[in-house]
Amino acid sequence: NAGVMQNPRHLVRRRGQEARLRCSPMKGHSHVYWYRQLPEEGLKFMVYLQKENIIDESGMPKERFSAEFPKEGPSILRIQQVVRGDSAAYFCASSLGLAGDLETQYFGPGTRLLVL
Amino acid sequence: SQELEQSPQSLIVQEGKNLTINCTSSKTLYGLYWYKQKYGEGLIFLMMLQKGGEEKSHEKITAKLDEKKQQSSLHITASQPSHAGIYLCGADISGTYKYIFGTGTRLKVLA
Predict the structure, then answer these.
(1) Do A102 and B92 touch (CB under 8 A)?
(2) CB of A114 closer than 8 Å to CB of A106
C-alpha cells in the first residue's frame, strides 16, 4: 500500500539548468498539491492539480515554474533555468478528491533540490 | 507575519516527561492537521481536527482544537526518543485545499 512517491529524492543542478520533479499520488487519489520548504521557513503552497487540470497555481512563481498532472503518469513540477534561490525541499501531497469534504493531504518524502 | 504561529520553536525534554506544543491562528480554522517530520524525510500525518472542542488521541499523542477553532495543542505523554522530530501544524483557513503551515517545533528527547 504505497504512499505518495517522489523522485528523485535529491537533485543537484547548476544555475541555468532545468529541474524536473516527479510525484505519484497515493493509489486512488486524484488530487495533487505541491509545496516548497525553503531553509528555515515553513511549507508554502505552490499549486493544486487534478488530472489534466491546474486548479490553483497562485503560489507558483510567475516565471520559470510550471506543473502538470497528465491523464497517465506522475505529476511533474518543472523549474527552468534554475537559480540558487530555488534550492529547497519540494513536497508533493495527494488527497482523495471527495467533493464537499474537508480532506487530509498525505505527503511524499520530498525532493531536495540543490542549485550550485 | 506568520498566519499560523507555533510554540515553542524548539524543545528538549528528558525521556519520560510530558510536553505540549501549541499552534495558534488569528483566523477560524476549517481544519487543523498535525504532522511529524524527521530530518530529510517527508511529513507523516498524525491527526486532523475539525470541530470546535474536538480531541483525538493516538498512542501517547493527544491533540485538541479549542472551541473557537483558532488554537490547537499537541500533547505527548511519557515522551520517548522515537518522538523526536519536527512537529508541524497545518491548517485550512479557507475551507478549500490550500494549507498553511507553522514553522514547526523541533523536539529532542534525551534518553
Answers:
(1) yes
(2) no
Which residue in this structure is represented by grid cell 515522551? B79
Residue A104 has its nearest CB partner, among B41, B42, B45, at B45
Cα R_g (chain B), whole angstroms: 13
Task: Assess contact for A3 and A26: CB atoms under 8 A.
Answer: yes
Nearest of A65, A59, A89 to residue A79 by alpha carbon? A65
SS (H, E, C) B1-43: CCCEEEECCEEEEECCCCEEEEEEECCCCCEEEEEEECCCCCE
Q: For chain A, percent helix, then strand, then coil, each to nearest 5?
A: 5, 50, 50
Give me the residues of B, 49-88, that contact A with CB < 8 A. Answer: 50, 88
For A4-60, how does the pLDDT look when each residue is reduced to its tens digit (9 = 90+)? 999 999 999 999 999 999 999 999 899 999 999 987 788 999 999 999 999 999 999
Which of A35, A107, A113 is the best mutation test for B, with the most CBs of B within 10 A?
A107
* Amino acid identity at B54: E
Grid coordinates representing B26?
Answer: 488569528
Q: How confident is the model at residue A83, as a pLDDT?
A: 96
In chain A, whose CA is at the least distance from the CA of B102? A42
Distance CA B48, CA A44 (A): 19
What whole-number distance in Å separates Cα of residue A32 and Cα of residue A74?
10
CA distance A71 to A68: 10
Q: Which pLDDT tens digit goes with each residue over A92-102?
A: 999 987 766 67
